[in-house]
Each structure stands twice: as structure tokens, then as C-alpha cells.
């Protein structure tokens, strides 16, 4: 089996459906793209970064937000509190500590998202983490995404 055969159509369809469902449920396409870009940065997935940076621009995410995303915690005034809570939860789910997602991070997100919104946010982070791992495992190079 070659690296390009790691993902079959049925698995790709399931991952795509999870991603689409989570994004729809979150209801904010710009925020969804910030979340998937941040997770992709943490997971070093060049293909997903290339793809989602393109999509983020289509949804009106500012170049300033995209440029500073890797340092969002220090970028005061660039991200609103809802975005910052979502990014903190994204990092905690993507790179869990020994205790899992810290209670404070989850509580912070819960102040900005209702139960359904939290479920979709976590679902989106889970989905992009899966995509990142598949694309990194397959060594898929950036540049192959076309809108």
C-alpha cells in the first residue's frame, strides 16, 4: 500500500460529513476557518493550511488575523473573546495535557457557546485533527486544493 492509498472514499466521505456538519452547526464560517487553521498549524499540515487559508480569505477573515494566528494569545485586540475562547479550546483538544482539556478552558468556551455550539466546535476540532493526521501520514503537499 502506498501512502496515497491511506484514505479510501468511504472514510473520506465520513470525515467530510463530520467536517461539514460541525461547520454548519457552528454557524460562523470565518471562526470555523480560524479554528481549522490553528489546529493545522499545531499539527504541521501544510496541505490543510494551504487549503484553509484560501477558504478563510473567501469568508472574509482578515490578513492580520491570519498573519497573527500562531501567536493569537499575544495578539491583543486582533481576536474577540469568542474567537479567543474557541482558539484556546482548539489548542487544548489538539494538544491535550495529561489531565485532558483543562476545566478553565472548557468553561471559557462555554461562556461564548451554548451546548450545541460547543458540541459542533469540538466536533470541528476533532474533524480537522483527523484530516491533518491523514494528510500528514500521506505526505500530501500543499497546492493541490482548488475551490
Question: What is the topology?
Answer:
Layout (H helix, E strand, L loop, with lengths): L8 H18 L2 H14 L3 H13 L4 H6 L12 H14 L8 H8 L4 H24 L9
Helix pairs in contact: 1-7, 2-3, 2-5, 2-7, 5-6, 5-7
Structure report:
It is a single chain. The chain has 147 residues and is mostly helical. It contains seven helices and no strands. The chain has helices spanning 9-26, 29-42, 46-58, 63-68, 81-94, 103-110, 115-138. The longest helix is centred in the last third of the chain and has 24 residues, at 115-138. The protein starts with 8 loop residues before the first helix and ends in a 9-residue tail after the last helix.
Summarize the structure.
The protein is mainly α and 147 residues long. Helix content is 66%, strand content 0%.
Mean pLDDT: 92
Overall geometry: globular
- Rg from alpha-carbon coordinates: 15 Å
The H-and-E topology, N to C, reads as HHHHHHH
**What gap, in angstroms, lies between the N and C termini?**
29 Å
Biggest β-sheet strands, sense, barrel: none
DSSP summary, beta strand count: 0
How many helices?
7
Percent of sequence in beta strands: under 5%
Helix content: 55-70%
Low-confidence stretches: none
Structural class: mainly alpha
Amino acid at each position: 500500500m502506498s501512502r496515497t492509498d491511506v484514505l479510501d472514499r468511504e472514510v473520506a466521505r465520513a470525515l467530510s460529513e463530520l467536517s461539514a456538519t460541525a461547520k454548519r452547526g457552528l454557524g460562523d464560517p470565518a471562526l470555523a476557518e480560524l479554528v481549522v487553521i490553528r489546529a493545522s498549524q499545531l499539527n504541521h499540515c501544510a496541505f490543510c493550511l494551504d487549503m484553509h487559508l484560501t477558504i478563510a480569505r473567501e469568508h472574509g477573515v482578515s490578513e492580520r488575523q491570519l498573519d497573527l494566528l500562531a501567536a493569537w494569545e499575544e495578539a491583543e485586540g486582533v481576536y474577540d473573546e469568542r474567537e479567543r475562547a474557541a482558539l484556546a479550546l482548539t489548542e487544548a483538544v489538539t494538544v491535550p495535557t495529561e489531565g485532558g482539556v483543562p476545566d478553565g478552558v472548557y468553561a471559557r468556551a462555554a461562556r461564548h457557546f451554548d451546548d450545541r455550539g460547543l458540541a459542533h466546535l469540538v466536533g470541528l476540532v476533532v474533524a480537522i485533527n483527523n484530516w491533518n493526521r491523514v494528510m500528514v501520514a500521506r505526505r500530501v503537499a500543499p497546492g493541490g486544493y482548488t475551490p
